């Protein structure tokens, strides 16, 4: 009898211990709300000009630091806009897992209209005012109601709505410039650094084809602005990344296969890059290339005179004009002051021109102009005051 009671007691304790161990195996990590607020890292303009004609253009690219929740976890970011500082009715503009997000002119216009702004002379509404923005960071990807989160300080942007039919402002478009001892500029960040060509259909994608110096010590990076080392783009663990997202400078691209011609393509949104050889041998080298058209003078006289471009001493296929006033109109590029070889395309500001292609549309402004006769790629970069 005593033996049976002892056996039952042992079984009871074994079951209790098993359940206790099972419960202990379900380890739960508790994320804590970061003590410091998340913060924006990009610089903002003093005023944003909005018009319905440019609604599809990007108005601003917001960037921010990643918060530390104390445990490794995916983070969902929500960029919010509001018509009032209290965020009474916040608008979720972008939801992303990245530390950056672009907001279009159209999104700002919608917010501005909700704030009662317009440029209609028949109303008493103001045509300019302030809009408010913040970014929320939440644990995970499901946005659970009780997830820890942190919210940035509020940033105020001043916007002005242009009257319908008024002068359309030039869009603010991103650029990337080459720097490094594999390039013409060497490690000087303000030495007429060659720009990459922005894809006119996707402003996050850039391409450059040209000469690079090679060797294990010949390297380069990409800068968003000439004369400034920040923000800069390079390689981190073999992947494209930026100093803004990393919090420090990325590594360099290395031309390890030797001096020659290469095509570089980068996607700053998806953080991808490719660098492949380009066969330049047999390509024609021109003695002159110029820009011609109504857009160079503002009248038809522009179609009868070439404005010669400067040929790069580093790469004879790269041509540029440091400063030129262009007018509303159209232009083309042509070689040897003759229509026998001319390039054109239907996209303004940047694109890939083809032989005998359409005229390139221009808007009145002062520009820096670049052309690549190997690919037909071109940049018309407005010079901002």
From TrEMBL:
Q: Which UniProt keywords apply?
A: Signal
| Stored InterPro entries | Ig-like_fold, SusE
Q: What is this protein called?
A: SusE outer membrane protein domain-containing protein
Signal peptide feature range:
1-22
Output the superkingdom of the source species: Bacteria
Q: Which residue range or ranges hold the SusE outer membrane protein domain?
A: 23-119
> What stretch or stretches form a coiled coil here?
none
**What organism does the record attribute this protein to?**
Psychroflexus lacisalsi
């Amino acid at each position: 009898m005593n033996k049976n009671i002892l056996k039952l007691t042992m079984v009871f304790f074994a079951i209790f211990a098993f359940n206790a161990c099972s419960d202990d195996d379900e380890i739960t990590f508790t994320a804590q709300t970061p003590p410091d607020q998340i913060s924006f890292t990009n610089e903002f303009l003093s005023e944003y000009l909005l018009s319905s004609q440019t609604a599809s253009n990007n108005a601003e690219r917001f960037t921010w630091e990643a918060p530390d929740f104390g445990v490794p976890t995916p983070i969902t970011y929500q960029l919010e806009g509001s018509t009032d500082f209290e965020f009474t009715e916040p608008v979720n503009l972008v939801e992303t897992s990245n530390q950056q997000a672009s907001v279009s002119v159209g999104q700002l216009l919608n917010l501005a209209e909700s704030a009662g702004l317009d440029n209609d002379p028949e109303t008493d509404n103001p045509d300019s005012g302030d809009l408010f923005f913040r970014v929320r960071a939440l644990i995970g990807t499901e946005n659970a109601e009780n997830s820890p989160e942190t919210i940035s300080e509020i940033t105020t942007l001043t916007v002005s709505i242009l009257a319908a039919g008024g002068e359309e402002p030039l869009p603010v478009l991103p650029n990337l410039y080459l720097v490094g001892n594999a390039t013409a500029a060497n490690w000087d960040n303000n030495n007429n650094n060659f720009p990459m060509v922005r894809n006119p259909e996707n402003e996050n994608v850039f391409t450059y084809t040209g000469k690079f110096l090679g060797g294990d010590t010949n390297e380069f990076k990409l800068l968003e602005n000439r004369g400034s080392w920040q923000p800069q783009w390079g390689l981190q663990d073999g992947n494209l990344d930026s100093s803004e997202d990393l919090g420090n400078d990325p590594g360099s691209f290395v031309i390890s296969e030797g001096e020659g011609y290469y095509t570089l393509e980068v996607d700053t949104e998806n953080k991808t890059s490719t660098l492949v050889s380009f066969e330049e041998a047999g390509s024609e080298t021109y003695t002159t290339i110029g820009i011609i058209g109504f857009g160079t003078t503002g009248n038809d006289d522009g179609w009868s005179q070439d404005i010669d471009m400067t040929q790069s001493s580093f790469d004879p296929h790269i041509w540029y004009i440091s400063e030129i006033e262009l007018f509303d109109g159209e232009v083309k590029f042509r070689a040897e002051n003759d229509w026998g070889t001319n390039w054109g395309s239907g996209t303004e500001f940047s694109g890939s021109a083809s032989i005998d292609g359409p005229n390139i549309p221009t808007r009145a402004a002062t520009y820096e102009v670049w052309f690549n006769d190997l690919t037909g790629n071109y940049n018309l970069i407005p010079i901002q005051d």
